[in-house]
Write a structure and sequence with these properties.
The structure holds 2 protein chains of 2 kinds. Chain A is α+β, with helices and mostly antiparallel strands. Chain A contains 6 helices and 13 strands. The chains are: A alpha+beta, B alpha+beta.
């Protein structure tokens, strides 16, 4: 029998850090467990560094050792502002970093909220699997979870479909004609998982006066986040909060960064965001608890510069206007995410030139 | 089906652009759908759906689940577990287009399973069991509380299996229709539970062979796959037309006009306005399909009884 979420594990496993109480979802004054607004994503810090030949070991986080490369912590490119109950503002940081794996043609490490993903790209290289001649290249994706990624050991191996979904998300962006007869391998490893499929999403919405103020402040403070949706419009919309939940969007974004790091030609960077819907609210960037109570989810993978969606999955029941709003929020978030990714790549490139 | 020449490709694309497909249909017209129910005597419910040359069989089997944890999940988190599996005959896939050849039958089956899970019954996915063909998910179209026998103790597990007998494109729609028909054909045996058992013991159950409960399947959505070829979209693509696809979006819509699930296939990116356009086209088409399918199912059941 499969291990269902909520089943008591046979062995000890650390309980999640947030409180046991479920948030009262339908009440007006629902505060998200980590104090974010409905339309606030966990912030993304893109930090680029290239593998240098000196042998300093440095750590990114906890037990993770990305061997042999010097790391420079650049300042946060963009931060998300979270609001506590009393309106205090505390920044919350994510990471993006390339050049994490020595042996690979290109690699990237991303840390968004609690999700930590490392993606390595090998290629274009010869592949034993491809026996037939083809005049376009092949893309081979594999997403795997470490056994310690989830609170219950081994739960991550349930998500075998992530490989297919990653493939579908990326194949529209890569220019396969540039490497005929060869294969590009993308291996994604989820080091720590915070849900089933989460993506980061940025959006603005209004739940309270406080959040409007915070959103406006965010707009002013953070010039990287150019919100395409006018604040008034979003405020008037019917309480859309997007939940970005899960690992898949993080994996997809990180994979496209790794592909760029490897020098594979692409039409555009691929950014991915997901949204969860709770009856009348859409919440961006949901965490696991929020995701468990969701009514539906919408995940979008898009190429922001071309304004094209490469992958779209919707579960649960949605009405058309809600899909509309959800898509709009996701697209805005993807645009911002892509800007962050691009700036990371630029910094990494300029680092390597020095 | 393998390897169309350039001329044939142009012919197909040109025909679609002029709203006249190879078999004479309009862009948004379905092939004639024929439904037979009760084809598998051993299953609690079954149906066989034919759309042109595409032939699929869906079967529903029920099993009593005594695990209280699973039943608790049903009540608290709306996550009753219904398994769906899709099996494809392996020789079938050799003749498929190049896109499928490299990945093989297993991946296509897994993809169909996920898409069915997502579109038909909604909700989150759980574990994938060994064969990669089986997925858990929670139901949105079915009234899940009808599956409870004893609260927190016993409930029914539904196993939904699909078998593709022959494929001529549009597998997802056919499977969706077959599952809907199979579920309306499903009879869950009535269960009598011995009263007055203490909380820790397993209640005695008496499964009757005679009386059955039927599902109310009016809420189950149908899946409409819109395939974009060139600048237009078509519904119910044959495998020749599918070989021309730049991208395809499968949308499942129910009677109330809500979208219950959406998946995109194909690598080419789509502009968001096109996707919204597709959604409205799909809703329009799905109204007709739901009515047609319901009447077909009703007549199939009537035939079966007679």
């Amino acid at each position: 029998m499969a291990d269902k979420g909520g089943a008591t594990p046979a062995t000890y496993s650390p309980s999640p850090t947030t409180g046991r109480k479920k948030p009262p979802l339908l009440k007006e004054d629902w505060i998200r467990p980590d104090g974010r607004g409905f339309h606030q994503c966990r912030p993304a810090l893109l930090d680029m560094h290239r593998f240098l030949s000196d042998s300093k070991c440095s750590r990114i986080d906890g037990a993770l050792l990305i061997g042999g490369s010097a790391k420079r912590h650049l300042g946060p490119v963009s931060t998300r502002i979270t609001s506590g109950v009393h309106g205090s503002v505390q920044p919350d940081i994510d990471f993006f970093r390339t050049g994490a794996v020595n042996a690979a043609s290109g690699s990237a490490y991303a840390e968004i909220g609690n999700t930590k993903v490392i993606v390595s790209v090998f290629g274009p290289r010869e592949s034993k699997k491809a026996m037939i001649y083809s005049d376009i290249g092949r893309l081979n994706c594999n997403v795997s979870f470490t056994t310690f990624a989830t609170p219950v050991r081994g739960q991550g191996s349930d998500h075998k479909e992530y490989s297919t979904m990653l493939h579908k998300a990326l194949e529209g962006a890569i220019i396969l004609e540039t490497f005929p007869k060869t294969t590009v391998d993308v291996f994604a490893l989820v080091l720590e998982s915070s849900g089933s499929h989460t993506s980061r999403c940025l959006g603005f919405g209004k739940r309270s006066q406080l959040e409007i103020m915070l959103c406006e402040a965010l707009l002013l403070i953070d010039s990287m986040f150019l919100c395409n949706v006018p604040l008034q419009e979003v405020i008037a919309s019917d309480n859309i909060s997007e939940c970005v939940s899960g690992d898949l969007p993080v994996v997809i974004s990180c994979a496209s960064l790794a592909l760029a790091d490897a020098g594979i030609m692409m039409y555009d960077l691929v950014a991915s965001v997901s949204v969860s819907c709770f009856s009348k609210n859409l919440v961006i960037d949901p965490i696991l608890e929020e995701e468990n109570c969701q009514d539906g989810s919408l995940m979008i993978t898009c190429m922001p510069s071309r304004y094209e969606i490469t992958q779209l999955t919707v579960t649960g029941e949605w009405s058309t206007p809600k899909i509309n709003e959800g898509m709009q929020l996701c697209l805005d978030a993807c645009a911002k995410l892509a800007k962050i990714m691009r700036s990371c790549l630029k910094e990494a490139a300029s680092d390597s030139q020095e | 089906m393998v390897g169309l020449s350039c001329g044939e490709n142009h012919f197909i694309q040109g025909g679609i652009a002029q709203d006249l497909r190879c078999d004479g249909r309009k862009r948004l017209a379905y092939r004639p759908i024929s439904v037979e129910t009760g084809v598998i005597p051993q299953a609690n419910g079954s149906a066989r759906v034919r759309m042109g040359a595409t032939d699929v069989i869906a079967s529903v089997k029920c099993r009593l689940n005594f695990e209280s944890q699973a039943c608790c999940n049903l009540i608290k988190e709306k996550s009753r577990y219904i398994l769906t599996a899709v099996q494809l005959q392996s020789q079938l896939l050799r003749s498929h287009s190049i896109g499928f050849r490299g990945r093989g039958g297993d991946e296509l089956a897994a993809e169909l399973s996920i898409a069915l899970q997502r579109c038909l019954l909604g909700g989150k996915s759980g574990t994938a069991v060994v064969l990669m063909l089986v997925f858990f998910f929670s139901g949105a179209g079915i009234n899940l509380s009808s599956l409870i026998v004893v609260e927190r103790k016993i409930c029914w597990d539904l196993y939904i299996d699909g078998l593709v007998v022959s494929s001529d494109g549009n597998l997802l729609d056919a499977l969706g229709a077959a599952i809907k028909a199979a579920l309306s054909n499903t009879g869950i045996p009535r269960v009598q539970v011995a009263a007055e058992t203490s909380n820790n013991e397993q209640p005695e159950v008496d499964v009757s062979d005679e009386e059955f409960l039927q599902f109310d399947t009016a809420g189950i959505p149908v899946i409409v796959t819109l395939t974009k070829v060139g600048r237009h979209y078509i519904v119910d693509a044959t495998s020749e037309e599918e070989s021309q696809l730049s991208s395809a979006v499968s949308i499942s819509a129910n009677r109330q006009g809500n979208i219950c699930g959406m998946t995109k296939r194909g690598g080419v990116g789509l502009d968001p306005s096109i996707i919204l356009d597709m959604i409205s086209a799909a809703k329009h088409v799905s109204d007709q399909v739901i009515n047609k399918l319901d009447s077909e199912i009703a007549s199939a059941e009537a035939e079966e009884e007679s």
